[in-house]
Amino acid sequence: MSANDTTAMEPVHNGANAQADFPGTETATHFNYEDEKQVANAPDSSEDADYDPEHPAPTAEDWATLREVADKIPYSAYLVILIEFCERFTYYGLSGVFQNYIQFPAPASYPADQAGALGKGQQTATALVTFFQFFCYVTPILGGIIADQYLGKYKTILTFAIIYVVGLVIMTATSAPSAIASGGAFPGFIVSIIIIGFGTGGIKSNVSPLVAEQYKSKTPFVSTLKSGERVIVTPQATYQKIFNFFYWGINVGSLSAIATTELEKNVGYWPAYLLPTLMFIPAITTVILGRKRYISAPPRGSIFIEAARVIGYSFKVKGGLDALKPSALKENHPELLDKATWDDVFIDELKRTIKACAVFCWYPIYWLCYSQMTSNLISQAATMETGNVPNDIMQNIDPLVLIIAIPIMDRFVYPGLRRVGIKMRPIFRITLGFMFAAIAMAYTAGIQSMIYNSPPYYNMPSEANDGSGGNNYISAGYQVLSYVFIAISEIFASITGLEYAYKKAPESMKSLVMALFLFTSCLGSVLQFALVSVTVDPKLVWMYTGIACAMGVCTPLFWFCHGKNDKIDVEEDSIVRNAIQEEAYQHHSHDADFKDNKI
């Protein structure tokens, strides 16, 4: 079976150990690795397997004695990562200067001591930046529905990329000095962030599943490294590696804020917005030129209606979702059998998806912690001594830490832990991420307290100099650890969340489930809206302290509620359907074989 085929459901017999005895891994995959020859320039790793012609499924003894490693990443996945790099370069280049753009008035000349344009104050700036984040993570639901039900991921990405460009042009045009002076910049800004929000949302919900779809193996197998060591190559380790690279690309792109913050301070806002606009061109070019290389699941029109019907019937039938499997309906509710357009595997997939969405319910508090980095921490730096650098350049510490830390985690930390038998399953990693987010906010509360105890403005630096703000005698270097802790939390919570959303969703709902995960960031923005009234001096210490306490309480509760999921992570991920089953399912076959789940 080639690398582009759907995983077979029948076990591959290769001696006595061919069929897996590990729970949930009933199948094995024979791989044709011709596609790997195309990945000549992909970074290699000692963790990548030196493949043999055949790879048996791991036995119970293999699971007990062999360590897990990641497979190689397909070439097409790197193209998708390039698309995400360009889009995130644009997004963070723009949004990295929003807080100053809105909060402070336009300077008399450039270079400016304090960059600004609209002069609306910190509360308005925080509210609008929060709205932008909110909107950018609501629209992925629309993008997910369009992709899964109508257009597919590729066409949806291309369509929303065009919408994105329109918003970028408006943003750049209305940030010109003449537009700022005439009062046209503010309405232009509102219109552009709404259009950009639609564009980035449609792309965001689809590019993450698309990068993971480039890897087609769904079941673990045994292989041999160049050193001669026998290992288990698992989808879990491979997806972890793919999303680590994907997130690394995001953070390399986000360094664009270094350039745009320098441009806003030294030249003005129109070049700060023009640079990200021009960078979006390679993103669209990559989408178009790579169209023949991408592997993308086709849309299946009725999936959301079907899921809603199943959930609706589950309240009417005893036994929950399991009782709605066609194999169970035959015995207990034959009158419903003709109404079933699903099969047994779909029910298992839907159960797994609902369980994943329960995990996502804890993320809004996490994103509330994260969002401080792009709003209130920027304003905090404006009340500290930053030397000759812009106050909003400090946020780039976060991606710099991630760019260094992610490869270290991928090549050394995670493989080293797997080597000694510590597998770092998803729920445990997310729990660690929540813990570091709580630490980041507690530390930030301490920094804010130090600011309020520093001269010359003490606890009212925002009202100094006739309301334009002033600096207390404390270095912005104290903020470095806030960004470091947030970055560490992202490695464990944010990357793993992307991975979890993809792995737990059925093939026909990948974009929607990813959008639901991204929607939790939107809910975090709603919580941030609720805190706008306390984002003023001298209440900021209590705001940061409250967020830290909320995240600190959620962390152990999250582990208590979901820690057991790690024990069945591999078993759940093995729920797949073969090509024949998928074709029958795609066409809503209603014959007896489909109902009996025999295809």
Automatic annotation (TrEMBL):
GO terms for molecular function: dipeptide transmembrane transporter activity; peptide transmembrane transporter activity; tripeptide transmembrane transporter activity. It is found in: Membrane. GO terms for cellular component: cell division site; plasma membrane of cell tip. One of its GO terms (biological process) is dipeptide import across plasma membrane. It is a multi-pass membrane protein. Coiled coil: none annotated. Residues 1-58 are annotated as: Disordered. Keywords: Membrane, Transmembrane, Transmembrane helix, Transport. It comes from the Eukaryota. The chain crosses the membrane at residues 127-147, 154-173, 179-198, 245-263, 269-290, 427-451, 480-500, 512-534, 540-560. Gene3D superfamilies: MFS general substrate transporter like domains (1.20.1250.20). Belongs to the major facilitator superfamily. Proton-dependent oligopeptide transporter (POT/PTR) (TC 2.A.17) family. PANTHER family: OLIGOPEPTIDE TRANSPORTER-RELATED. This is Peptide transporter ptr2. It comes from Bifiguratus adelaidae.
